[in-house]
Amino acid sequence: MMTRRGLRTVSRLGFVSLMLVGAACSSGSGTPDGDGNGTPPPTSGFRVETTADKVAGAVALKVKFNANVLGASGGVLFAWNFGDDSVATEENNKQNPEHTYTRAGEFTAKVRVTDSTGAAAESLPIVIRTRDSRVDLRVTEITVGSDVVQAGENLAVQVKVANDGTEASEATTVAVYLSTSQSIDRSLPPIGTVQVPAVPAGEEIQAPAQAASMQVPSSRATGDYFVSAVVDPDGTIGEIDEGNNGLIRIQAVRVGGVAANVDLTIPSVSLDRAAAFPGDSIRVSYAVKNEGVAAAAPFHVKLFLSPDSSFEPTDTVVATESITSLPAGQTAQKVADVVVPQSAVAGNYTVFAVADLANTVAETNESNNRGEAALRVYTGTVPGTELVVSTVTFSPSSVMPGGTVTVSYKLQNRGDQAAGAFTNRLVLSSTASATALSPSVGTDSIASRRLRRRFPRTRRAAITTLGLWPMRRMLLRS
């Protein structure tokens, strides 16, 4: 902040603000006159605050000015001189005029304010630098020294800046901000600035490391914040494109927490059938992977049934799996049998698997914890033929190699068309799933059955494995 003979000049967010207390102003060396022709301005008891939305830019730069008058009595008149010898128009007499600078140079914009008592005041000049610009600066990369920092501590920030223009830029700065969302929030002051030397045309440079350590305000609450950076934040360099100077780091920084070196993902979700009825049990197979570099602490995976393709935390929870730990780079294969609620109506549903919905594990990426699979729910008959296997039992629960077990299962056609003859294959698997390559221990030929007729089938199969295998309820139609 600069104070001079009753005048305050405040620079923030690319705006230049000027505040003049009329009674404290007098003409003299370095002080603007009242009408631009050497006439001292009369004194007054009010003050004027002037702002401009831009202070630099290329030729054809449009600037919006504002004169805020505080404490004036009666009607107020405004007379602007934009400093570029332009012909006066109605804009010159507005409180908040707009003006376009059509040639290069450095100009001084002035305003004369008069109230009903005849007193007048004038602000100090706002310097507008315009030129034919061939510079285009943008932040291309942001790196931080740690993904966790305590409020009041320093955060090391590195930035890279590119000049996509055709001529070298001047030296400038990069302002660094902390936002609670993935957007550049300049409502709060930056946590620091990085000095950037001149950037040659068509090149990218990294700002010096020693100038990039900045303090996180002690008032910041515990939580996740996003680091953003804006090159030339005050707009002092005229550029081809003034709207591409900022960049936001995708990964959050945890303030007041523990380092986030874990990244939980759900790379796959599959169902044992594409359609079901209310009350049916379906088998959900899914994978949970830790893409991070540290082991994950205990967390939960929840399965949700959603009536549409959009996940909401209020969707119906149909299963919950507790995972005590997941090492870095490891994948856990999980299976859950879930029941379609009896209250479900016919329609297209989505089964979502969501890891660590409660965010108990700090992660480098909290947005990739979900996987999904589609499910069609019917309440009447299914068009065509729909064969469903259910109620699979076997006895005894274990046998020696070459022993015999009895497998019982129920089969139903829920379609609106009768099924032709077909064969079921009994498959033995050491896991909770099977593929076409899984060993078959028997087949069961089924003759054509009428619509929706339930009937039990019993099959005796000799098992000739080399060890003790638990029987799995798995029937595949051939």
What does the model show?
It is built from no helices and 35 strands. The chain is mostly beta strands and 478 residues long. It folds into four domains: 2-131, Immunoglobulin-like; 137-255, Immunoglobulins (Immunoglobulin-like, Sandwich); 264-377, Immunoglobulin-like, CATH 2.60.40.10; 387-477, Sandwich (Immunoglobulin-like), CATH 2.60.40. The chain is elongated.
Average pLDDT, to the nearest integer? Answer: 77
**Strand adjacency order, main sheet:** 1-2-3-4-6-8
User: By CATH's scheme, which homologous superfamily of the largest domain applies?
Assistant: Immunoglobulins
Uncertain spans:
1-42, 450-454, 465-478
CATH architecture grouping of the largest domain: Sandwich
What's the total count of β strands? 35
How many domain units? Answer: 4
Number of continuous helical runs: 0
CATH topology (fold) name of the largest domain: Immunoglobulin-like
